[in-house]
Structures are given as C-alpha cells and as structure tokens.
Design brief:
Helix content of chain A: over 70%
Structural class of chain B: mainly alpha
Number of domains of chain B: 2
Number of helices of chain B: 8
Radius of gyration of chain A: 13 Å
Largest sheet of chain B: none
Shape of chain B: elongated
Radius of gyration of chain B: 20 Å
Oligomer: heterodimer
Number of helices of chain A: 5
Strand content of chain A: under 5%
Structural class of chain A: mainly alpha
Distance between the termini of chain B: 22 Å
Distance between the termini of chain A: 32 Å
Largest sheet of chain A: none
Strand content of chain B: under 5%
Number of strands of chain B: 0
C-alpha cells in the first residue's frame, strides 16, 4: 500500500505525461535510463509505470490515441495488443 | 521464443547472494527481475523478450563471481545495463544482417561452404518449428504468394486470424525478427 505522500513524490519524479512518453519510446536515452532504473529498483515507481502502461493500453483499445501515438504503441505492443 | 537459461547452479546461487543476503528475499527479487527485464525488452521493441532476458541473466552469471566483491550499488542496475547493451547489439544486428523478406536466408559469403548453407537451412527449419503452429502458418502464409495474389492472401490471413492488416504486418515483422535471432543463435551454437 502506497501512502498518499509517496504518490505526490512519485508524481514529481515521474509525471504521468512523462511516463506515457517513455512507454511510447519518445524520451531521450538519459531519461529512459533513469526511468528504467527506477522501474527495477523502486517498487512504487514500478507500480506507477505499470498503471500508466495499463491506461495507455486502454486508450489504444478505446481508439483515443493520436495517429502517431497509435503507431508507436503498435510498434511496441502490436504482438499482444490485438 | 524463450530458451532455457544455461546458468550453472553455483553462479545462480551467487546471483541470489548478490541480490540479497536472505535467500528467500533474493529468490523473490530474482523472479521479479526476470519479469521486469522482459518488460524492458518489450519496451525496447525486442521480438524475443524472454530469450533476451535469459541471455542477460546468462551474461551476468558469467561475470558475477568477479563482479560481486567490487560492485557498488544496487545489482539490479547492473542487469539493466547488460540488458541495455543487449538491446543495442540486437538493433545493430537487425540493421546489418538478415533480410527475411520472402524468408531469405542469410546470404552465404564467398568463404562459406555447402555445410554452412546446410546449417543455415537446418537452423531455419528448427526455428520455424519452434515458432508454434499459428506463427509458423502466419509467416509462411504471409510470404507464400506473388503480387496481387499476395495482397489477396494477406487479406485472407488477416481475416482468418481476426486481425487488421496493420496488426498482421506488425505480427509478421516481429516474427521475422524473432526468427532472425533464433537462426543466429542456432548458427552460433553450430560454429562453436
């Protein structure tokens, strides 16, 4: 269970918008390494990334991604999304 | 297309000890790490996340004995770095080798012999078998016809698998990548 304060901290370190960009492969190498490192070592960060990934998948299924994001999403998750 | 990890038991134990002094905690961390690395490979658009996770663990296993006494920081970050290198290697390989359009085999060089060609053929057959029926039928079907017949056939395939043409193309692309990796690993084993 994550305390409310911890989510606030994570929001500052890992804003939702940034995580969506990360999951769509739109961030630079330095940022990617930082997020991947948090994913592997910080349970709250990991949980948050997986939640955002789930939201992204739902947006894809609801067809609410932009054409560019849809293409990026498919190139990453195409094998399992359909 | 996961393959069995080849980590010797003593290296596996050393990895666990490196992750955490408590073996039960370490075992849980190892399972989590496997899952997370596979996820990272998916994000890295790798065709075979499970296989590449195994390769990452194998590579770390080969170095863990020397690394452990001197490594500073969270060991999981070392696994991440190895995984990252593997993604880079994989991307380079994909750019430089195998064009499987039409399931082309790796082009034999002037120094390759008939045995090499036979090895490539054998590896292709083995890797096709490992794909599983659906994927094998899909990729062989995708490249089976010529021109208009090919277009019609792809429409039929998409219908048969209940997916769009766009998804069909993505699936075939990923299967091709995975086949290429499998063939290369197979050839490497044969040439060792």
């Amino acid at each position: 269970m994550v305390a409310c304060g911890e989510w606030i901290v994570k929001e500052e370190i890992l804003p939702d918008a940034l995580l969506r960009e990360f999951l769509l492969g739109k961030v630079g190498d330095e940022e990617r390494v930082r997020i991947e490192s948090l994913f592997l070592t910080d349970p709250e960060a990991r949980e948050k990334i997986l939640v955002i990934e789930q939201e992204l998948t739902e947006d894809y299924l609801e067809d609410s991604l932009s054409a560019e994001d849809r293409e990026k999403f498919l190139s990453r998750y195409g094998q399992t999304a359909a | 297309m996961a393959r069995d990890s080849e980590i010797p038991p003593e290296s596996f134990e050393e990895i666990l000890a490196w992750l955490n002094a408590d073996r039960d905690v370490a075992a849980a961390m190892y399972v989590q790490l496997r899952h997370d690395l596979a996820k990272m490979f998916t994000w890295g658009r790798c065709a075979d996340p499970e296989g590449m996770t195994d390769e990452t663990l194998d590579r770390v296993a080969k170095k863990v004995h020397g690394l452990r006494p001197t490594y500073q920081g969270d060991p999981r970050l070392y696994f991440r770095a190895v995984a990252n290198n593997l993604i880079k290697e994989n991307n380079k390989k994909i750019k430089s080798q195998l064009s499987l359009e039409g399931i082309d085999l790796p082009v034999p060089t002037l120094t390759e012999t008939e045995d090499d060609t036979a090895d490539i053929e054998e590896c292709l057959q083995q890797c096709l078998q490992k794909l599983g029926t659906d994927k094998r039928e899909l990729i062989l079907g995708y490249y089976a016809k010529e021109k208009q017949a090919k277009i019609d056939h792809r429409n039929e395939l998409a219908q048969r698998f209940g997916i769009t043409l766009e998804t069909l193309r993505v699936r075939v692309f990923r299967i091709r990548e995975s086949l290429a990796e499998c063939i290369e690993r197979c050839l490497k084993r044969k040439r060792q």
